[in-house]
Amino acid sequence: MEKWLNCTISQGQFSDEFAVQGVLFDNTNFSLFVQKQDLKFDNEPKNDESVQGFIRVTTLASKDDLYLVELPQPTIENGRSITVKADKIA
After folding, report:
1. How far is the first Cα of the chain from the last one, in angstroms, to the nearest whole number?
2. φ, ψ for residue 37 (rounded to 5)?
3. E-strand stretches of 1-90
4. Full domain range(s) for residue 10
């Protein structure tokens, strides 16, 4: 099922991508680069600014207050599947 994960968004290395940072269930960070169609935000980030927004995810499983989700692209640190807290999902 498609959901949206809370994240911080900034400009990427190339004009057609954005850098995304988020928080895993254990409060460690993850990061990745994605295309605009996989994001929702009110104002596009400019220069060195970051904005709060959401990244599209697919839920794979849930238990208690945790979700295993698949991201549109692999993270730099952990691959495509990550575990996040339910309060980060919209």
Report:
1. 12
2. -65, -15
3. 2-11, 18-23, 29-34, 39-40, 50-63, 66-75, 79-85
4. 2-88
In this predicted structure, what is the pLDDT of residue 2? 95
Q: Interior CA angle at 84 toward 82 and 22, to 5°?
A: 80
What b/e readout covers 20-45, taking b as 16+ CB neighbours within 10 angstroms? bebbbeeeeebebebeeebbebeeeb
pLDDT score, position 47: 85
The closest of 46, 66, 53 to 21, measured between CA atoms, is 53
Report how many domains make up the chain.
1
pLDDT digits (tens, 9 = 90+) for 39-86: 999 999 988 899 999 999 999 999 999 999 999 999 998 899 999 999
Q: Angle at Cα 10 formed by Cα 62 and Cα 83, nearest 5°?
A: 15
d(CA 24, CA 28) in angstroms, rounded, equals: 5
